[in-house]
Design a protein that fits this description.
It is a single chain. With about 775 residues, the chain is of the alpha+beta class. It is about 30% helix and about 30% strand. The strands form eight sheets. Strands 19, 22, 23, 24, 28 and 29 form a six-stranded mixed β-sheet that branches. Strands 14-15-16-17-18 form a five-stranded antiparallel β-sheet. Helix 4 packs antiparallel against helix 12, helix 6 packs antiparallel against helix 8 and helix 8 packs across helix 9. It is elongated, with a radius of gyration of 34 Å.
C-alpha cells in the first residue's frame, strides 16, 4: 500500500480486543441473542467467551468436532462430531442436553432456523400449543442416577435437569428446524433439534431442467456438502456442495441416454415447503413425540439402574450362601442347602456343615450385612419404580393417547404420515407396559417380604446356636421360610422380569389366568393376550419398537416430500485437492424491502437469497482473484411472475491481496477478510477487513438456467468490478489472518483470528454504541 494510507478517513471499525489464544481456533460462531462467542479449537475443545473476553466454560466432547451452530434463541449450542453425532449443550454451563446419532459420517455443517412468519403473528406472540399433560400429571420424572456414582460420571446429571426440561418443553418454543449435513451427502432435519422429521440423500435427488427439445434430469456423484442454510420461512434449503453433476437425458419421444458431466462446486435448492405447510401439525406431533422420547430414556435408564442394583445384591447373597454348598460337599453329605435349612427349621439336629456355616462362614455380622444389602437394594428398586419408572410409563400412556387423537384427524395428520393403526398399536403397548410395572411392584414387594422373613429366621438361629438371647429379634413366619426355600433360594423372579428372556423362554402363567385374559379381549382388553408371558424389559422393548414404528412414518413421509427444485453450477474444480480445500462461501436470506400478498391473500414477508463465494484461480482462465455474488436464485425458480430474476457480479480483489474468508452481514452487506501476499501468495503479515454494501453493487442479469449454458457465472467475466482499497470501507489488521471469520449480525461485531493464536474483535458499525457486557 502507499504511504498515504494512514491519512485516509477515520477508520470505520473499532478494535475492541486483541487477545492471545491457548490453541488455534478452527470454528467460531456468535450467539444470535447474547454477547457470547463459541469457539472450537484444533484439539476439539469448545470455549465460550463473553464479549469482554471473560471465559465462561470449556468442554471437550472427546471426539473431533466438525461443525458448530446456535439455536435461534441462543440458549443451546450445537456440535457436529466426526462420528456422525449431533450434540446439544446448555449455554449456561456447557452440559450435554441431548445427543442424536442421525448420521453415519462426519457432520460437516449445521443450520438451525425458526419460522420468521410465526414471529410476525398479529398477536405479537409465537404460536403456542397447550400441553394438557400438566393438567393431570406432576412434572415429568428425572433420570435416575446409577448407584454409587456422583452426578456427571455417567452423563445423567442432576444439575442439568432444568435445562434438559427446558429443551424438551417445545410448547413454549417457536417452530424451528435443525438441519445437519454430513460429508457423504446426507441431510437430516429435526423439529426443535430433538425430533427427527426427515432426511435427504443429495446423491439420489433428481435435478430437473428443460431445454427446447429434451428433458434433462441430473444427479450428483461423489458429492460433499460444504454449507447449508434454511430460508427464514422454512420453505427452501440452499446447499453448497462439490461433486460431479451427471446428466440423464430423457428424449421427448422416449428413451434415455447419459449426457455430459460437470465436476465442480454447485448450489442446490431443495423445496422444504412441507415444513411451513404442515407447521401446526408437525409442531404438535413433535411436541408429544419428543417428550415421549425423553420418557423412554427415563425408563431405559431406570431398568438399567434396577438391573445393576439387584444383580449386585444377589451376587453378594449367593457369594455368601454358596459357601454352605461347599461345606456340605466337604463333610460328605448327600443333601442340598434347602434340605439342610428345612431340617433346621423342623427342629432336627443341626448338621456340622450348617453349624459351621452359620457360626463361622456367615456369622451374625455377615448375616446382618447380607440382609442390609438385599433389603436395601429392594427398597432402592421400589423408589426407582415409584419416582421414575411408573410416572414415566403413565405419562407416556397419556401422550400416546394425545397422538391417537391427532391421528384420527385424518384430513390434517394423514398427510404427514401419522397413521392411526400404528399409533393405536403403540397406545396398547403402553397400556401393557403399565400392567407389567404394576405386576413388578407386587412381585418385588412379595420377594422383599420373604427375604426379610428368611433373614430374621436365620439371625434367630445364629443367636440360639451362640446361646445368646433372641427375644428382641423380629418374629418370623415358618410357612414363608418354607416358601422361600422352595421357590426363591435358587430362583430370582425379580431379575427374571428385569432381564430380556433367552430364546424360547417365557414366564409361566397358569391356564386359568390366561383364559381370563383371552376372555377380556371381547370386552375391550388388550388384543395381544400373551403379554403376561413376557418380562418387563421385553415389554418395554416392544413398546419402544411400536413407538419408533409410528414415529418413523412421519419421518418417511416428510422425507419423500423434500424435493430438489434446481441446481446452479458455480464453478468447475480441476483437481481432487481443489475439491477438499477450504473455499470461502456464505449463504444467507434477507428480507425484501417490501412485503407482498400471497396467493391465499395472506400478508407475508418476502426473502432474497445471497450466495457469496471465492472462485479458485484455476477454475476459469480469464477470471482470477475474484469473489462472486449471486442473488435471487430461489426467487428465480419460484417467483418469476413477481419480476425477480437471477443476478450476479464478480468482484476482483485489489492487487496484492487475496480473500481468506467472507461472511454475509445484516443490511445486505458482505464482510471480507483479506491477506497481503507476494507472488507465491505467502503471507507477509498484515491484513484488511473490508465491508461492501451488496445491495449497491451493479448486479448483472444472468440468462436462464439450462444445462446448455454449463457454468452460467462465466457470463459475468466481461463485467468484473475491480475493488480499490481507497474507495472501500476497510480496516487494517496488524497480523496475518486465518479462517474462519465470525460475524454477529445482531450485535454488529466480527471476530478475526490471527495465524499466531490471537483473536481480534471489531465493532463493525460506526454508530454502534459500546456493547454491554452485562449479559
Amino acid at each position: 500500500m502507499e504511504t498515504d494510507e494512514g491519512s485516509r478517513r477515520v477508520l470505520p471499525f473499532q478494535l475492541q480486543f486483541d487477545k492471545p489464544l491457548a490453541s488455534q481456533v478452527k470454528m467460531a460462531e456468535w450467539n444470535p441473542e447474547k454477547d457470547l462467542l463459541a469457539m472450537v479449537t484444533e484439539d476439539s475443545k469448545v470455549v465460550l467467551h463473553r464479549f469482554n473476553w471473560q471465559r465462561l466454560w470449556t468442554i471437550s466432547p472427546g471426539k473431533c468436532i466438525t461443525s458448530l451452530c446456535w439455536r435461534p434463541d441462543g440458549k443451546v449450542v450445537v456440535l457436529g462430531l466426526e462420528d456422525g453425532t449431533v450434540s446439544l449443550h446448555d449455554v449456561e454451563n456447557g452440559k450435554l442436553l441431548r445427543s442424536l446419532k442421525s448420521h453415519a459420517a462426519a457432520v460437516v455443517c449445521l443450520n438451525w432456523e425458526e419460522d420468521a412468519q410465526v414471529n410476525r403473528d398479529t398477536s405479537g406472540n409465537p404460536l403456542a400449543f397447550e400441553d394438557r399433560t400438566t393438567r393431570f400429571f406432576p412434572p415429568a420424572p428425572r433420570v435416575p442416577r446409577m448407584p454409587r456414582l456422583v452426578p456427571g460420571e455417567t452423563g445423567l446429571t442432576e444439575d442439568g435437569q432444568d435445562s434438559f426440561e427446558e429443551l424438551s418443553n417445545s410448547s413454549k418454543q417457536c417452530f424451528n428446524i435443525l438441519c445437519s449435513g454430513d460429508k457423504d451427502g446426507f441431510l437430516c432435519f429435526s423439529v426443535f433439534g430433538v425430533f427427527p422429521i426427515g432426511n435427504v440423500n443429495i446423491h439420489e435427488c433428481d435435478i430437473p431442467t428443460t431445454t427446447k427439445d429434451r428433458n434433462i434430469v441430473g444427479r450428483l456423484l461423489n458429492a460433499s456438502i460444504r454449507k447449508v442454510v434454511l430460508s427464514k420461512d422454512l420453505c427452501h434449503l440452499m446447499v453448497a456442495c462439490s461433486g460431479e453433476l451427471v446428466e440423464d437425458i430423457v428424449e421427448s419421444r422416449g428413451g434415455q441416454m447419459v449426457g455430459d458431466s460437470m465436476h465442480g462446486f454447485h448450489c442446490l435448492v431443495l423445496d422444504t415447503s412441507i415444513f411451513q405447510k404442515s407447521e401446526n401439525e408437525l409442531h404438535q406431533v413433535a411436541q408429544q413425540a419428543s417428550n415421549i422420547e425423553d420418557l423412554l430414556h427415563v425408563i431405559r435408564t431406570s431398568l438399567s439402574v434396577m438391573n445393576k442394583q439387584w444383580a449386585d445384591a444377589m451376587n453378594i447373597f449367593h457369594e455368601k450362601f454358596d459357601l454352605l454348598s461347599n461345606l456340605i460337599n466337604d463333610h460328605g453329605l448327600d443333601s442340598s442347602p434347602q434340605e439342610e435349612f428345612l431340617s433346621l427349621l423342623g427342629g432336627a439336629r443341626t448338621s456340622q456343615a450348617v453349624h459351621q456355616f452359620l457360626l463361622s462362614s456367615l456369622g451374625e455380622v455377615g448375616m446382618k450385612r447380607v440382609s442390609k444389602v438385599v433389603c436395601g437394594a429392594g427398597k432402592e428398586l421400589q423408589l426407582v419404580v415409584l419416582n421414575h419408572l411408573q410416572p414415566a410409563v403413565e405419562i407416556i400412556g397419556f401422550r400416546m393417547g394425545e397422538l391417537r387423537g391427532l391421528s384420527r384427524w385424518r384430513s390434517r395428520y394423514l398427510g404427514i404420515g401419522l397413521y392411526e393403526t400404528l399409533v393405536d398399536n403403540a397406545v396398547e403397548r403402553a397400556g401393557m407396559l403399565l400392567v407389567q410395572v404394576e405386576r413388578f411392584i407386587r412381585v418385588l414387594s412379595s420377594v422383599l417380604q420373604q427375604f426379610a422373613n428368611f433373614f430374621s429366621w436365620l439371625l434367630k438361629c445364629i443367636k440360639q446356636l451362640m446361646s445368646e438371647p433372641s427375644d428382641q429379634l423380629l418374629t418370623y413366619n415358618s410357612e414363608l421360610v418354607v416358601v422361600f426355600l422352595k421357590f426363591l433360594y435358587d430362583q430370582d423372579p425379580v431379575m427374571q422380569l428385569l432381564d430380556l428372556p433367552k430364546a424360547d423362554e417365557e414366564i409361566d402363567i397358569d391356564s386359568e389366568t390366561m383364559q381370563r385374559v383371552r376372555e377380556l379381549v371381547q370386552f375391550g382388553g388388550f388384543g395381544d393376550s400373551e403379554y403376561l408371558q413376557r418380562t418387563l424389559a421385553e415389554e418395554f422393548q416392544q413398546m419402544e419398537h411400536s413407538f419408533r414404528e409410528a414415529a418413523q412414518m412421519p419421518f418417511s413421509t416428510i422425507s419423500k416430500k423434500i424435493l430438489c427444485k434446481n441446481l446452479l453450477p458455480l464453478f468447475p474444480l480441476t483437481s481432487v485437492s481443489a475439491s477438499t480445500r477450504y473455499i470461502p462461501i456464505s449463504l444467507s436470506f434477507y428480507e425484501d424491502a417490501s412485503e407482498f400478498t400471497s396467493s391465499n391473500q395472506t400478508h407475508e414477508v418476502g426473502f432474497t437469497d445471497y450466495i457469496s463465494f471465492q472462485i479458485p484461480d484455476e477454475s476459469f482462465l480469464d477470471v482470477t482473484n475474484c469473489i462472486a455474488v449471486v442473488r435471487g436464485f430461489m426467487n428465480y425458480l419460484s417467483n418469476v411472475k413477481q419480476g425477480r430474476s437471477l443476478e450476479g457480479i464478480l468482484l476482483c480483489i485489489p492487487p496484492g491481496y487475496y480473500c481468506v474468508d467472507l461472511a454475509l452481514y445484516k443490511e445486505h452487506q458482505i464482510v471480507m477478510l483479506l491477506n497481503k501476499m507476494n507472488d507465491t501468495r505467502e503471507n507477509l503479515g498484515d491484513a484488511w477487513l473490508m465491508i461492501l454494501q451488496a445491495s449497491d453493487l451493479p448486479f448483472v442479469h444472468i440468462s436462464g438456467i439450462t444445462w446448455e449454458n454449463n457454468w452460467e457465472l462465466y457470463q459475468l467475466k466481461d463485467s468484473i468490478l475491480h475493488l480499490e482499497m481507497e474507495n472501500e470501507k476497510i480496516r487494517s489488521i496488524p497480523h496475518a489472518v486465518v479462517p474462519p471469520l465470525s460475524v454477529s449480525a445482531s450485535r454488529g461485531v466480527a471476530c478475526v483470528l490471527a495465524a499466531r493464536k490471537r483473536a481480534l474483535v471489531y465493532i463493525l458499525d460506526e454508530d454502534e454504541d459500546e456493547i454491554s457486557d452485562s449479559e
